[in-house]
Amino acid sequence: MSLGNDKIKVLIVDDSSSSRVMLKRLLETDPGIEVLAAAQDAYTAARTMKDALPDVILLDLEMPGMDGLTFLRKIMVQRPLPIIICSSLTDQGSARTVEALEAGAIDVILKPAPKNDQERAEAAETICNAVYGAAQSRGRGRAVRRRTGPAAPVPPSPKLTADEILPPPNFKKAHPRTEPIVCIGASTGGTEALREVLCALPPDAPGIVIVQHMPKGFTSAFARRLDSLSQIRVFEAADGMPVQQGHAIIAAGDRHLALQRIGQNYRCKVIEGSAVSRHKPSADVLFRSGAAEAGANTLGVIMTGMGDDGATCLGEIKQIGGRTIAQDEASCVVYGMPRAAVERGHAQQVMPLNRIATAIMAFARMHRGG
């Protein structure tokens, strides 16, 4: 594992020569990352790994010979390593990406195709953040701290707050008692964490709205897969979709998701706009809308993930009288978002992943019976 002054060593596995060159250039904009090798197929990658193990593998799924999914499964059996799927957006590709996440991949990014300097800066920020998150994943030793190097020729866009999308809640506003609403935010490692939580919930679970950091196009396949596994129904968010008992709704990969109260009921509000906390969708936007629209009817849950998205506005749910939970460090793949919430004093409870579904149902029973 890359510690101290060592760089994080990345192995790129992609059959496209142009993609390998582009990914290498983007990764090497960060002085804390080194490209160990760029392999054209799984067999070349395997030979490289006999000589030197990478800290993180960046893997394309669509390759001749041994495909990426088969290669991933072999690695997970023989020598598990943090693997990021770097995929093109196709219907088949998104479904296979969900399979890869279930097989042990830690994250997914959309294969970048930057057209100008600004897009290259944004793509470099995305891919390097994914590598740092993977390097910090559970079972890989101490956390790797992101280093600051020389300023990029074109810096990424500024880190915006939820104020960019929604005004702050009115903490003096009284909210009528309604059905309980659960807002969940997750990132790196969150796909499998969400599967565990949602599959443990009974059909009468409260309405749930979710932000999972995933690229555009992959959330629909992810929602369909969870819907096939869970007792509750799971959908990708659409504007105006009702939030109701027994349903979980996952934000689309390129839109913010917010709650909107209509009388005693809630529906989804899908919002265009800038990235917040460098993410779109953003957990901060979802949590702020929960505080503003549902008030004390809201349970906010922040789960495994790199960075601090959601940590600030989880505090708004707490401040307005709702309940808040953070996943504990031991059960997180990356203890970033929950750590930020805990350190700011915004998590009322800290618990392992396998207790979160029970806590959701306890909140629902208490709220309905109160």
Task: Report the top-level CATH class of the largest domain.
Answer: Alpha Beta
The strands making up the biggest β-sheet line up spatially as 8-10-7-6-13-14-15
The low-confidence parts are: 139-143, 147-153
CATH superfamily of the largest domain: Methylesterase CheB, C-terminal domain
Relative strand content: 15-25%
EC number: 3.1.1.61, 3.5.1.44
Region (Disordered): 139-171
Organism: Marivivens donghaensis
Biased composition (Basic residues): 139-148
Describe the structure.
By secondary structure, the chain is an alpha/beta fold. The protein has two domains: 8-135, 3-Layer(aba) Sandwich (Rossmann fold); 172-369, Methylesterase CheB, C-terminal domain (Rossmann fold, 3-Layer(aba) Sandwich). It is built from eleven helices and 15 strands. The protein has helices at 17-27, 42-51, 68-78, 91-103, 117-135, 190-199, 219-229, 283-293, 311-319, 337-343, 356-369, and strands spanning 8-13, 33-39, 56-59, 83-87, 107-110, 181-186, 207-212, 233-236, 242-243, 247-250, 256-262, 265-271, 298-302, 323-327, 349-351. Strands 8-10-7-6-13-14-15 form a seven-stranded parallel β-sheet, sandwiched between helices. Strand 3, helix 3 (68-78) and strand 4 (83-87) form a beta-alpha-beta unit. Helix 3 packs parallel to helix 4 (91-103), helix 8 runs parallel beside helix 9 and helix 9 (311-319) crosses helix 10 (337-343). Residues 139-143 and 147-153 have low confidence and may be disordered. The active site is at residues 187, 213, 309. It holds the Pfam family CheB_methylest. It is found in: Cytoplasm. Residues 139-148 have a biased composition (Basic residues). Residues 139-171 are annotated as: Disordered.
